[in-house]
Amino acid sequence: MLKIKVKILEGFSILALIFFLIGCGTGSSSETYNFNEDMPEWLEGKIDSISSASGHYNDLIKVYRYNWKSSFIYYFSNPLSSCMYCEIYDQDGKKMTASNDSLLQNTLRTREGEILIWKNNK
After folding, report:
1. How many domains does the chain have?
2. Which residue of 9, 75, 83, 94 is most buried, as measured by CB atoms within 10 A?
3. Contact status, residue 54 vs residue 73, Cβ threshold 8 Å
4. Which domain does 80 fall in, by range?
5. With 0-12 CB in 10 A as exposed, 13-18 as middle and 19+ as buried, what is 39?
6. Are 88 and 107 in contact (CB under 8 A)?
7. Model confidence over 65-113: pLDDT tens digits?
8. DSSP strand pairing (62-68 vs 87-90)
9. Residue 46 DSSP one-character state
10. Cα separations (Å) of 74 from 1, 12, 71, 86?
């Protein structure tokens, strides 16, 4: 009986992980982004620090801009972490924190207008 319960829990864990990964997936956009004109100063500084840092984690980071609730949010994605270490910032550079997973998932589901604005080219 215990083995059956463990198998059921493992199955639910795998399904939860799959849904989480799908929720962290990104679409595409044809909107253009002018790196020199559209880049907020705080974001340029953060990207500069990521670019100069060494380590496998920083080598895979991509930064996306989205429309969300009538403003921009900036999403720092790292495919190695499956969104565990994703960071989201508002347009003024304030890190957005989710008090629970459902708030984070709601933000990720309701964002629109994806634009890849930077990826580490190491």
Report:
1. 1
2. 75
3. no
4. 2-119
5. middle
6. yes
7. 999 988 999 999 887 766 666 788 999 999 987 666 777 778 888 999 9
8. unpaired
9. H
10. 47, 31, 10, 10
